[in-house]
C-alpha cells in the first residue's frame, strides 16, 4: 500500500463514526417519524394485540394453554394443521410472544398477559366472542363502508358467523334475564315460542324459572339451530324444548303460544317490515298471550352499538337498531295492546318491550295511524 492510499484508509476509518451519526440524524429528522411512533403505540400495537387475541380465543388456542403449557406439536394437533405448516404456526405464536400475550419457555407456549388469561376462562366466553365479532364483522363495516356505498354492495346474513354471534350476544345476558324475570309466569303451564333463539340460553333460563314451561326454539340459521338443539340435549331439556330451523315469517304454526320472545333480533328485519313481522308474532299467540322483545336501541351514545347499527344499516336483509318510540308504534300497528318499553337498567340503551294479544284479531299489521304514533308516555 502506498502512502497516499494508507492516508486515505486512515481518514475513511476516522470519518466512519461521524458519517453514521450524520445518517442517523437525517433518518431521525424525518418529519413522519413522530407520527409513526405515536400511531405504533396508540393504533398499530393495540390492533395487533386485538387481532391476535381474537384469533387465539376463537381457535381455542387460549383455552388449550389455560389448562397446561403447550408445545408446537400439541397446538398443531389441536388446530389440525399439516406437519409442513409448523413454521407458519410458530411464526404466528411468536408474534403472540412478542406482543406479550404469550410466553415461550423450554419449547412450550403458555399464557402470559392478564387479558389472555381472562379471555381463556369459560365464564368469559361471551366477551371473547365479542372481541371476535368486533374484529371479523365490525371492522369490515367501518373499513368497507365507502367501497360498499360506491359499489352498491351490502352485507348478507352469511357475512356473519351465526355461531360466533350466538355466543357474543350473551354479553347482555343479565339484562335479558331481568326482562324475563319481570314477564314470565312462574307456576302456570307456559308454552313458549322463542324466535331467533341463538344458543338457546334464554329458553334454558325460562325453563329454569318455570318447571311447567315447554318451548319451541326457532332460528333462521341452520348451524345455529343445530347448535341450540345440541345445547338443549346437553342441558337435559330435549324433552321440554323442541328446536327447529325456520323463519318466523313462514313458520307453519297455530296460535298456540302463551309467550313469544324475540331477543336481540328485531334489527334482522327491514324497518318497513317490522310491523308485519310483529303482527306475525302476534298471530302465533293464544288470546291473552304476551310478546317479550328485548333489544339495544339507537341513540344511546355507546360506540359499539353505533358500529352494530352501521353493520345493519349496510345489511341487505336487516335495518338499523330500533328507536323505542318507533318500535312501540310498530307494536301497536301489529295489533298489540298495553304496549310498553322499559329500560332494564337506568341510563342503558337496552330495552324490554311487551305487548299483549288481547283478541284473536286481524293477523296483518294495521294501517298507518298507530305505526306512526309515538308512544313516549309508555317509554320508561
Ligand atoms: C343476534 S342473534 C341473537 C340470538 C339470541 N336471541 C340471543 O339473544 O342470544 C339473532 C338471531 O336471530 C336469528 N333470526 C334472524 N331473523 C330470523 C327469522 N326471521 N326467524 C328466525 N330467526 C331469525 C338469527 O339467525 C340469529 O341467530
Automatic annotation (TrEMBL):
<dbReference type="InterPro" id="IPR029063">
    <property type="entry name" value="SAM-dependent_MTases_sf"/>
</dbReference>
<dbReference type="GO" id="GO:0032259">
    <property type="term" value="P:methylation"/>
</dbReference>
<dbReference type="Pfam" id="PF08242">
    <property type="entry name" value="Methyltransf_12"/>
</dbReference>
<dbReference type="GO" id="GO:0008168">
    <property type="term" value="F:methyltransferase activity"/>
</dbReference>
<protein>
    <submittedName>
        <fullName>SAM-dependent methyltransferase</fullName>
    </submittedName>
</protein>
<feature type="domain" description="Methyltransferase type 12">
    <location>
        <begin position="193"/>
        <end position="291"/>
    </location>
</feature>
<dbReference type="InterPro" id="IPR013217">
    <property type="entry name" value="Methyltransf_12"/>
</dbReference>
<dbReference type="InterPro" id="IPR036388">
    <property type="entry name" value="WH-like_DNA-bd_sf"/>
</dbReference>
<keyword id="KW-0489">Methyltransferase</keyword>
<dbReference type="InterPro" id="IPR050723">
    <property type="entry name" value="CFA/CMAS"/>
</dbReference>
<keyword id="KW-0808">Transferase</keyword>
Amino acid at each position: 500500500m502506498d502512502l497516499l492510499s494508507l492516508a486515505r484508509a486512515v481518514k475513511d476509518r476516522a470519518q466512519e463514526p461521524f458519517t453514521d451519526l450524520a445518517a442517523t440524524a437525517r433518518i431521525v429528522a424525518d418529519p413522519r417519524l413522530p407520527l409513526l411512533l405515536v400511531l405504533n403505540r396508540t393504533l398499530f400495537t393495540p390492533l395487533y394485540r386485538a387481532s391476535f387475541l381474537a384469533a387465539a380465543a376463537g381457535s381455542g388456542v387460549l383455552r388449550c394453554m389455560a389448562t397446561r403449557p403447550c408445545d408446537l406439536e400439541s397446538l398443531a394437533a389441536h388446530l389440525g394443521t399439516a406437519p409442513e405448516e409448523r413454521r407458519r404456526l410458530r411464526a404466528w405464536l411468536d408474534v403472540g410472544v412478542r406482543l406479550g400475550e404469550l410466553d415461550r419457555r423450554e419449547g412450550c407456549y403458555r399464557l402470559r398477559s392478564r387479558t389472555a388469561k381472562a379471555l381463556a376462562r369459560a365464564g368469559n366466553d361471551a366477551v371473547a366472542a365479542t372481541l371476535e365479532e368486533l374484529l371479523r364483522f365490525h371492522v369490515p363495516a367501518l373499513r368497507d363502508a365507502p367501497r360498499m356505498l360506491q359499489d352498491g354492495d351490502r352485507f348478507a346474513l352469511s357475512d356473519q358467523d351465526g355461531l360466533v354471534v350466538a355466543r357474543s350476544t350473551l354479553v347482555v345476558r343479565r339484562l335479558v334475564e331481568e326482562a324475563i324475570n319481570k314477564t314470565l309466569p312462574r307456576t302456570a303451564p307456559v308454552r313458549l315460542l322463542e324466535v331467533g333463539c341463538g344458543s338457546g340460553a334464554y329458553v334454558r333460563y325460562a325453563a329454569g324459572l318455570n318447571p311447567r314451561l315447554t318451548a319451541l326454539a326457532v332460528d333462521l340459521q341452520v348451524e345455529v339451530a343445530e347448535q341450540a338443539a345440541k345445547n338443549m340435549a346437553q342441558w337435559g331439556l330435549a324433552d321440554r324444548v323442541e328446536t327447529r330451523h325456520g323463519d318466523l315469517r313462514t313458520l307453519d304454526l297455530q296460535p298456540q303460544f302463551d309467550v313469544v320472545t324475540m331477543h336481540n333480533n328485531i334489527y334482522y328485519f327491514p324497518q318497513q317490515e317490522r310491523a308485519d313481522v310483529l303482527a306475525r308474532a302476534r298471530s302465533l299467540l293464544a288470546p291473552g298471550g304476551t310478546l317479550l322483545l328485548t333489544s339495544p336501541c339507537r341513540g344511546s351514545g355507546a360506540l359499539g352499538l353505533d358500529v352494530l347499527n352501521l353493520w345493519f344499516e349496510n345489511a341487505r336483509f336487516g335495518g338499523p337498531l330500533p328507536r323505542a318510540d318507533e318500535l312501540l308504534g310498530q307494536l301497536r300497528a301489529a295489533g298489540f295492546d298495553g304496549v310498553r318499553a322499559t329500560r332494564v337498567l337506568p341510563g342503558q340503551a337496552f330495552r324490554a318491550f311487551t305487548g299483549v294479544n288481547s283478541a284473536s284479531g286481524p293477523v296483518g299489521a294495521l294501517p298507518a295511524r298507530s305505526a306512526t304514533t309515538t308512544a313516549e308516555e309508555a317509554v320508561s
